[in-house]
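Response to reviewer comment R2.3. The reviewers asked that we include at least one raw input/output pair. We reproduce the pair for F-box domain-containing protein here without editing.
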Amino acid sequence: MNHLMKLPEGCILAILSLTTPADVAKSSAVSKGFKSAAESDVVWERFLDDHGDEFIDSTCRLTIRATKKELFLSLCHSHILLDGGKLSFSLDRWSGNKCFMVAAKTLSIEWVDNPRHWEWTARPDSRFPEVAILKSARWLDIRGKIQLKMLSPKTNYAAYLVFKLMNNTYGIKTLNAVVRLMNQESENEAAKRATSVYIPSTSRFFPKDKVRSLNEKCANMRVDGWIEVQLGKFYNKGGDGDDDDGEIEARSMEIERLHDKSGLIVQGIEFRPQ
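Raw output as returned:
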């Protein structure tokens, strides 16, 4: 440790820029030299360049901020809207890897254009201009996809359905969920390995330790007040061949038990690093 403290600041900056945001935060407790380096724009600019510079250029760089660290942290605690409000982008605070949520307006939702079954409405608690509300349907099929090249390479991801439930929700207790690489597996093949996810009533949520002990994946309350349920996991190789040009699709469905369903409010599907 004494040898590290004797390193010139340039070396410390180079070392920290090759680590993760979490490592940089921890290093600030080592010494005054490390604390100074941990606040440097050089280090945090590297994280921004590695994990989302192409998205930040057109939006956040127009906002006056004191430091690159503040810009990075703002993207960890909030989000920016892309593609005309159809996609949101943020960063994972621990790794700096990219997070995206695909808006309901961009999802493929069965019968969403039929006003008998679905309606579009604005909600002040949604990050997107509109959300989709299930009025009445017997068949539920929701899909969202994203290009792998948009995600952080060599990273484990999970896909989540982000939703709320109306007070008069009924008919939605479980869904089948699956994630597939679209250029490697057909939707019929993927559907055969779909697993059940549990959608609790509006007043009941399992704690995370209880969720891990159940065979079914269970919905959890998010810090933003919405609910999420994991649809599946995948590894994004990134730059390792043809997979880099493919798309990943996350799907939630109930197409077997054809009873009436109502009250689901869909904000989007989020692709988030693990």
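The chain has a mean pLDDT of 84. The CA atoms of residues 45 and 88 lie 21 Å apart. Further pairs are available on request from the corresponding author.
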